[in-house]
């Protein structure tokens, strides 16, 4: 999209780029407390704010999200407060985002837990470890007392308790129940309504450490349930060491729960336990863990008294083998096997067959349809990689020496090494490496159907230092059976931004990092490491990079009837991505020459006025250069040095010309202007108050977004409020006796 605007809007955009973000102190958590914009818990200090707010009645029903592992208290200075009291229940939503809270609590009141009293709370994706020391009742890692209205439920999903609860000095409250703890590994007591556990684990311990134990009534999950409690895919692998069950105290310990006479427990599918704490007359709670891992499963392994136990209830989360969101180490924490059935690789997860939900993760065979780009020449080029573990060329279906050539790139010598037969140096797809595949004849479909790569894949980049601008090009491949993204699955730590794909006509085309890399595809990257070799670790994730504010950019495309090539200008910091010669030597090249180097994508400063746009071709033909500009430009002209033509690309948007092999490569110049003045930012006249903006002044207020577009204007006189601003970055311009401009970040 070509954007033109007046001097005022351009001035505002330059102000946005030039001004540092003002740091402001807020007396509240970041976020709005909504499902789409939860309050963020980033530190122990934020947790204190969260606790104080809820216990004073603020945000009891709001949404919260933990953004990092945090530590609450130390052994020398433990915390004593909980979130939610008998006067102010926690009724909200808390997403741990698979982080861990390291808890050290010492409490001389009931409800020693992260959340003291809840009513309909939803807690998920959280691990808790550390120590709780208490002399009162109802301790648990997550919830002390699930009060719950009659129709409410407290839900714990993907929650892991590795907590150590110490009850050496339990105080007797009711003489009829001496030394009654009513502790649970996750929840102390369910008073009413329902408490639901889904994908939860207790692998910590509860102990009375005295020689003669008096503390009693403790369980793995919930100390006491007055109403309904449910379990889906749960594991009780913890230890309970309190006063044991005997004839006088038959219900001192239990695997998962203790129930009131009118209460009930429901197990949806099998939930497993490692230690058996049942007592006479107690109904069966869960299923004892297996002593051998079942075939075709992913099983979590526990060891107790030198015996291995297996719980076949693991899941695959975000393409990582994990156990309820916790990443595991293969052959140490879990066992698994893979079965190939009818073109698909299936990992069966047992334990889910008896309730709603999928029990299989499927990796399909990766197929690549190849065909000539020119039917007359019957030749086409593809950059490919294998999704299977170190797969020999000979085992790839339809990949035969009669119909293909395979090449790999030797970065140190700038050469393509061709594979011809098994006597060559290489004869298999190396994990993470990319290869050039040249089709012959009429093309077809090649299929990868070996053992799929799962988990991290390491690959070593090469970086040869010399005087030219072709340093560090590496052809790397997507090693997985699903799409991945550079910047997430492929780390950007040692790579230039962007990458190139190989078109079937043999041309390299630049792509930005937010474009997906399909399975079976290889990309050309450029190493920016200072070392000759650097190992990168590719991750088995499909997640895309987080959205970011794009810099201004201009993309030029040249094409004729056969070929197309692109060159890009980014107004951004960094080196850029150098231009690699096309694999097809007959294809034309369009590139930016800057500071003595040739770029497919050049990073230039905002004050750049002239850019050399170079063009080389072997074939005399009529070509057309077109342009796509994102940003604010007052002047953007393409000048043909050979013909003298001066084209206003903001008006015409394309230019046609005759090109030949004898033309000077330095044929084109791009002249541009995006300078509309240098207004300075004035004093602060606006601030955020909750979800509102408060503006102080007199005159007409204009509000612009980050692209320089006016989204609002209004008259202000004194203090004026703008209600319900979406979070983002804005430029405010106040036109009064003088002009004031301010950048503000709405959080």
Tally of discrete structural domains: 5
Number of helices in the DSSP assignment: 2
What is the number of strand segments?
A: 60
Would you identify the CATH architecture of the largest domain?
A: 3 Solenoid
Q: What is the oligomer described by this structure? A: single chain
Question: Beta fraction of the residues?
Answer: 35-45%
Uncertain ranges = 1-27, 314-325, 328-332, 347-361, 675-682
- Mean of residue pLDDT? 83
Dominant shape: flat
* Major sheet details: 15 strands, parallel
Task: Briefly note the CATH topology name of the largest domain.
Answer: Pectate Lyase C-like
Structural class: mainly beta
Distance between the termini: 29 Å
| Percent of residues in helices | under 10%
Q: What is the top-level CATH class of the largest domain?
A: Mainly Beta
Rg calc: 32 Å
Describe the model.
The chain has 747 residues and is mainly β. It folds into 5 domains: 70-288, Pectate Lyase C-like (3 Solenoid), CATH 2.160.20; 299-364, no CATH class; 367-538, no CATH class; 553-673, no CATH class; 680-746, Immunoglobulin-like (Sandwich). Helices cover 3% and strands 43% of the residues. It has 2 helices and 60 strands. The strands form 13 sheets. It has a 15-stranded parallel β-sheet that branches. Strands 45, 46, 47, 48, 49, 50, 51, 52, 53, 54 and 55 form an 11-stranded mixed β-sheet that branches. Strand 27 (320-323) and strand 28 (326-327) form a beta hairpin. The longest helix has 12 residues, at 7-18. The protein starts with 6 loop residues before the first helix and ends with a strand. The relative contact order is 0.08. Residues 1-27, 314-325, 328-332, 347-361 and 675-682 have low confidence and may be disordered.
